[in-house]
From TrEMBL:
Residues 1-73 form the DUF7477 domain. InterPro entries: DUF7477. This is DUF7477 domain-containing protein. Pfam families: DUF7477 (PF24289).
Length: 73
């Protein structure tokens, strides 16, 4: 984690499918998704805790084999 990044903690969840269990566990600990990356066989999510309390936005996970164009707005 970089100094003065605005986050008190950051973690990476990496999985060959989708790290939904780890993401939900981190959400319960106050982490929020701040970055994502993926290859054809891996998904990585960066989760962070902001230094100062922000207005919380709704975050959700969606696992699908096709692009979720009907779900994402």
């Amino acid at each position: 984690m970089s100094r003065n990044s605005g986050y008190s903690e950051q973690v990476v969840e990496l999985d060959f499918l989708y790290p939904s269990e780890g993401v939900h566990r981190r959400w319960d600990g106050g982490f929020r998704i701040t970055s994502t990356a993926a290859t054809t066989d891996q998904a990585a999510l960066i989760l962070s805790i902001p230094r100062r309390r922000l207005v919380d936005k709704t975050q959700e996970t969606l696992r699908t084999s096709q692009f979720p164009s009907t779900h994402v707005k």
